[in-house]
Amino acid sequence: MIKIYTKTGDKGQTSLYTGERLDKNHHIFECLGSIDELNAHLGLSREYCLSLGPSDEPKLAQLEEIQARLIDLGSHVATPRTSGEDQEKKIAHTAFDEANVANLEKWIDEMDLVLPQLKNFILPSGGLASANLHVARTVCRRAERNLIPLYKEEHIDAHAYKYVNRLSDYLFTLARYCAMKEGKPETIYKKAKQAAE
């Protein structure tokens, strides 16, 4: 039987895919943690989206596809592109396909065709599926911020970073789509009233 625990991280370090051991609070693992957290939120969002009905099964398939691509993204992050010639095989194995970004853009455009035009800022709202997708969107933005140093140092490919940037746009759009499909109103942001002098 394979045990879930290895005890190799008991001293506060763990390994990248390249074999290099780093402290668990290293910036790379901050990125991986945010990506993992985002994936968990997408799993919950997908469960909430089950109530949308059979006509929206493609949206469930999209979320499942994204969850799988986030695993790929984690492998990409855990294999810095600057690892050296002795790691070329692992770097090639964890390449992140630019077509993933194009998929997100296509899905966003498809939803935009049926969504009401956005004329105001909205608060995270619109039912359980929508509200949870907004939570996922904020975690996605944190993952994007975490990735910026790795992107600037060329530890990750440009389209891997673009994917996370585009994913937050997709999640915002899907949140609005879910609210529309469930007939749940989106709460419009209202500026605070000025106190009377």
UniProtKB/TrEMBL annotation:
Database matches in SUPFAM superfamilies: Cobalamin adenosyltransferase-like
Keyword ATP-binding: yes
InterPro entries membership: CblAdoTrfase-like, CblAdoTrfase-like_sf, PduO-typ
Superkingdom, taxonomy of origin: Eukaryota
Domain Cobalamin adenosyltransferase-like span(s) in chain numbering: 4-178
Keyword Nucleotide-binding appears in the UniProt entry: yes
Keyword annotations of the record: ATP-binding, Nucleotide-binding, Transferase
Pfam families named in the record: Cob_adeno_trans
Recorded GO MF terms: ATP binding; corrinoid adenosyltransferase activity
Substrates-to-products reaction catalysed: cob(I)alamin-[corrinoid adenosyltransferase] + ATP = apo-[corrinoid adenosyltransferase] + adenosylcob(III)alamin + triphosphate
Gene Ontology biological process: cobalamin metabolic process
Subunit (UniProt): Homotrimer.
Protein purpose: Converts cob(I)alamin to adenosylcobalamin (adenosylcob(III)alamin), a coenzyme for methylmalonyl-CoA mutase, therefore participates in the final step of the vitamin B12 conversion. Generates adenosylcobalamin (AdoCbl) and directly delivers the cofactor to MUT in a transfer that is stimulated by ATP-binding to MMAB and gated by MMAA.
Family in the record: Belongs to the Cob(I)alamin adenosyltransferase family.
NCBIfam families assigned: PduO_Nterm
Protein known as: Corrinoid adenosyltransferase MMAB
